[in-house]
Amino acid sequence: MKKILAVVLAMVIGAAMTGCGGQTQTPTQPQTQTEKQDQKQTQTENKQYKVGLSMNTQTNPFFVTVVEGCKKAAEEKGMEIFVTDAQDDAATQMKDIENLITKQVDVMIIDPCDSDAIVAAVEACNNAKIPVFTMDRESKGGEVVAHIGYDAIKSGKMAGEFLAKALNGKGNVVELQGIMGTNVAQNRSEGFNSIMKENPDIKIVACQTANFDRSQGMSVMENILQANEKIDGLYAANDEMLLGALEAIQAAGRQDEIIMIGCDALDETLAGIKEGKINATIAEPPFFLGKAMINTAYDYLNGQKIETRVILENQLVDKNNIDTIKTRD
Hints:
The protein has helices spanning about 1-15, 35-45, 60-75, 90-100, 120-125, 150-165, 185-195, 215-225, 240-250, 265-275, 285-300, and strands at about 50-55, 80-85, 105-110, 130-135, 145-150, 170-175, 200-210, 235, 260-265, 280-285, 310, 315. The chain is of the alpha/beta class. The radius of gyration is 29 Å and the shape is elongated. Mean pLDDT is about 90; it is low at about 1-30.
């Protein structure tokens, strides 16, 4: 009897140690730390992130194209994006960001209407534990993971250098400034004026704000033209103001008298350079700015180390390189 029991017990043990097909099972090995990290990385990359994009305006073609770049990159990365338009109003932008916070976005991207006024909105995101990125225009407070943009001081200097060279270091110049509550407008003006100071025979006969707006650029330039019989050069801190000023200059019949340069390299400005209506602009392609913004935020969400300031390359565009400039994919 004992022998029979021993045989049965041996058969049970043998069956337990074999799998389907009669093969012996291999014990599962515990994951290594590297394997765990790789698995976590794969899970993170497969997640669909939600992006809040708070834009200062969508009436300016520059910022419309920024959003196009953001949407293109978000589509490539499989990210869901919510876009708001503050219509150049700081109070509206605050409400927009509060609404985006309720959507529990994974990251907040802000292009501020005003560098000071946006601080409260940035702090609201900080309190909600939502990482904040600023684009083009900076915030003067709150915790920001990174800022993506172009070197505005460099842009202003490049424009000043172009005008100084084109005018052979002498003449009467007009400066149209942007929204001076933004660091971009402040820095472009600073860069431009630093070059003007190096050229004592160039006189700035008028310096007025037109708030990065085409219609204001036209009306401000109309008044400046009436007040000044001799104008040799014009620097507009963005192409929208330049295009408005161009209308006023053409209407006054003074296009051949004035060398004009703007900033941004909008499609309409590039066409104007090709047609000989505009002399130059500083290329700060908005499409690539939008793409760079989304790609940087995506890298951050996936645990990659990023720079706190990502400065994109800008360049002078005139008749010599107009056919080779690339402003979008």
